[in-house]
Write a structure and sequence with these properties.
Elements (H helix, E strand, L loop, with lengths): L18 E5 L2 E5 L22 H4 L14 H5 L7 E2 L8 E2 L2 H16 L3 H12 L2 H5 L7 H8 L1 E2 L27 E2 L9 H10 L7 H7 L15 E5 L5 E3 L26 H16 L4 H17 L5 H20 L4 H19 L6 H4 L11 H8 L35 H10 L20 H4 L10 E4 L10 E4 L9 E4 L3 E4 L9 E3 L3 E4 L10 E3 L3 E4 L3 E3 L3 E3 L3 E6 L8 E3 L2 E4 L4 E6 L10 E6 L2 E3 L4 E4 L4 E8 L2 E8 L1
Parallel strand pairs: 5-6, 9-11, 10-12, 11-13, 12-14, 13-15, 14-16, 15-18, 16-19, 17-20, 18-21, 19-22, 20-23, 21-24, 22-25
Antiparallel strand pairs: 1-2, 3-4, 7-8, 23-27, 26-27
Keywords: Signal
Protein name: Phosphoesterase
InterPro entries: Autotrns_rpt (IPR013425), PAP2/HPO (IPR000326), PAP2/HPO_sf (IPR036938), Pectin_lyase_fold/virulence (IPR011050), TAT_signal (IPR006311)
């Protein structure tokens, strides 16, 4: 990537010019470019503890190329554990050759197996404006967004072979007046959203300072031993030929940088831009949060498929983008903009689709042709790309969530307070021990895909309050992670919370108000369940590992034909209070027939009885049948 006009490419000092600096508790070698005279302690920051990234992100400019002076270089410090920057772009050396060798071998394997269709796709996303490429993550809302934002692109297909010149995105001829590439026009119906995306990708979000600081070459300039070997030959386009097994997509040969010193690989600029745009869109349209994160990982992977970047480059781009997005969204200067963008997106999409804040999520996931419709497939795509070739080493260390990171979940989990969102990030984070993820503040350990599904652990008691009147995620949400921990869950408020994971938390579950939906066999964890009010809805047969005590409120099980086990199985005893209600729902697809007896509760002991038994049927009535091992109901015609 060429440097800005007038900027001289910095060169790093020789081996004696490397200093040891404390990054995230470990010593790391850090290159000291001669452009910045920090060896003489000219910068006062070198003598003080570093500021939190979100308070220091505006130091990411080309005049700052050390961890002491540049917050991005600082958080990318894990790279200094595996790579020693040399005096020039091609004189660096691996400090952890096994990591960098695995990196190059992965890239060589992927590019050698690349199909023609994948090469064309890689060209498309290399040349297309990154913000525009991310829009597809909006799924059923994508075309509506493009129309409302007047977002366009001139890169809609890829050539079969190498184009004769470089190609850049632009507003195509014939596009509607006011159209813009990228996220769209700031004066459009979605102008605040487009402005938010562009602001998050603002003047302090460049990857160039990191590239100049670390000077790690692109994979096509290196062989699998991670050492640059110039063969002395040039290709048909005048580019040097290196002993490399990484094969650049033929469509991109003309698009490569011709000045190696100004074209570093780490961190990947495209990856940084892609994730920045995705997180800005996800803030404004949280109904597609997880799908936008998946889209960012998918697009970033094409950087490796293309041969233009390696796995470590892509990891670095994601790490810096996560931190930069949080910094921009947490910046008080952007508080009104982010609020306006979210409000504008909600109003625009509900207006165009005839939905409400409560039903927009369903519409946004209503297209079976949506390439991100399958959450499990999305998880399978994201998980290996969080770490790529990195292997875990050492013992796990607890994560202190970086300051301000909780803002990334502000619209996705709006019913939680800032401390709770930090707990979600902490309990869903990757473990320590991945060298490139363990830099200063450990931004690389955050797993935003998992965080969108709520807590990963209740390490202490959690109280969640959802408000049906507030709409959207305030009114209803689902936590899909497998939740463990010693703490318990208390559900308050009029809204609905659904638990779908294989949960093992041991602190018990209390329902005071609203609806708690149990949607898996172990949704309610390991511990007692107390219903003080509200409703416990059981969509799938569930086991309670303890006591089930219903003092008031409603138990709402779903009855399905062909089930032989109880809808609610309790390992200890069931205690029913005088104000308790049993409200039976018949499964819409396979309802039990008239005359059948259905097991509702299975338990070693049952004390008390329901004050009232209801059934959502105009043709059937339910008659309770108490048995030695629980409660059944006989369905009779009215």
């Amino acid at each position: 990537m060429p440097s800005p006009a007038g900027h001289r490419t910095p060169s790093a000092v020789n081996r004696r010019g490397f200093l040891k600096t404390s990054l995230g508790g470990s010593a790391a070698l850090v290159a000291a470019p001669t452009l910045v005279s920090w060896l003489g302690a000219a910068d006062a920051k070198a003598a003080t503890a570093p500021l939190a990234f979100v308070d220091d992100y505006k130091t990411n400019v080309l005049t700052n190329l050390t961890p002491e002076t540049n917050a991005v270089v600082r958080i990318l410090g894990g790279m200094a554990e595996v790579w020693k920057t040399g005096s020039a772009w091609n004189t660096g050396a691996p400090l952890r050759p096994e990591v960098l060798r695995a990196n190059m071998r992965y890239c060589a394997r992927v590019t050698s197996a690349r199909t023609e269709a994948q090469a064309k796709e890689a060209f498309l996303y290399d040349r297309q404006h990154q913000s525009y490429s991310v829009i597809a993550g909006l799924g059923p809302l994508a075309d509506l967004y493009k129309a409302g934002a007047k977002a366009v692109t001139s890169i809609t297909s890829a050539p079969d072979t190498t184009p004769p010149t470089t190609i850049s995105d632009a507003v195509p001829a014939g596009a509607p007046a006011g159209s813009a590439i990228g996220a769209g026009s700031h004066t459009s119906d979605l102008g605040q959203v487009a402005k938010l995306v562009d602001t998050v990708r603002g003047p302090f979000a460049s990857s160039n300072p990191g590239k100049f600081a670390y000077q790690y070459p692109r994979p096509w300039r290196m062989n699998e031993d991670s050492q640059v070997v110039d063969t002395g030959r040039t290709d048909a386009f005048g580019f040097p030929v290196y002993d490399s097994k990484v094969i650049v997509a033929p469509q991109l040969l003309r698009q490569r940088g011709s000045s190696p010193a100004e074209d570093g690989g780490y961190p990947s600029g495209h990856t940084n831009a892609i994730h920045l745009a995705a997180l800005a869109f996800a803030y404004a349209v949280p109904e597609r949060f997880q799908e936008l994160v998946t889209r960012a990982f998918e697009l970033s992977h094409t950087r490796i498929v293309s041969g233009m970047h390696s796995t470590v480059d892509v990891i670095g781009g994601r790490v810096m983008a996560t931190a930069l997005a949080a910094a921009a969204l947490a910046d008080p200067a952007n508080a009104e903009l982010k609020k306006a963008a979210r409000a504008q997106a909600l109003a625009y999409f509900t207006g165009k689709t005839g939905t409400t804040a409560d039903t927009l999520f369903t519409y946004a996931h209503s297209d079976a042709a949506d390439r991100y419709a399958d959450r499990r497939a999305n998880a399978r795509a994201v998980e290996p790309r969080l770490t790529y070739v990195l292997t875990r080493e050492g013992r796990n260390q607890p994560l202190t969530v970086p300051k301000g990171a909780e803002v990334l979940l502000e619209t996705r989990l709006p019913y939680l307070d800032a401390a709770q969102r930090r707990e979600v990030l902490r309990t869903t984070a990757l473990p320590a021990g991945y060298v490139l993820l363990d830099g200063f503040e450990q931004w690389g350990r955050l797993n935003l895909f998992a965080a969108a599904d709520g807590y990963g652990s209740f390490d202490s008691d959690v109280t969640v309050t959802l408000d049906a009147a507030a709409g959207g995620f305030h009114a209803a949400d689902a936590w899909r992670n497998d939740i463990d921990g010693r703490g318990g869950l208390t559900k308050k408020g009029t809204g609905t919370l659904t638990l779908t994971g294989h949960n093992r938390y041991t602190g018990g579950t209390v329902v005071e108000d609203g609806v708690l939906v149990s949607a898996s066999a172990h949704a309610l964890g390991h511990g007692d369940v107390r219903v003080l009010g509200g409703t416990v809805r059981i969509d799938e047969p569930v086991q309670v590992h303890g006591v089930f005590a219903q003092e008031a409120g409603t138990l709402e099980p779903t009855l399905r034909a062909g089930r032989h086990k109880a809808v609610l199985t309790v390992t200890r005893r069931v205690v029913l209070g005088k104000g308790s209600v049993l409200s039976l729902r018949l499964d819409e697809e396979k309802p039990p027939a008239a005359g059948s007896t259905v097991r509702v509760i299975g338990a070693p002991a049952l004390r008390g009885q329901f004050d009232r038994v209801e059934l959502n049927s105009d043709t059937l009535r339910a008659v309770p049948v108490h048995t030695a091992d629980g409660l059944s109901v006989r369905l009779l015609k009215r």
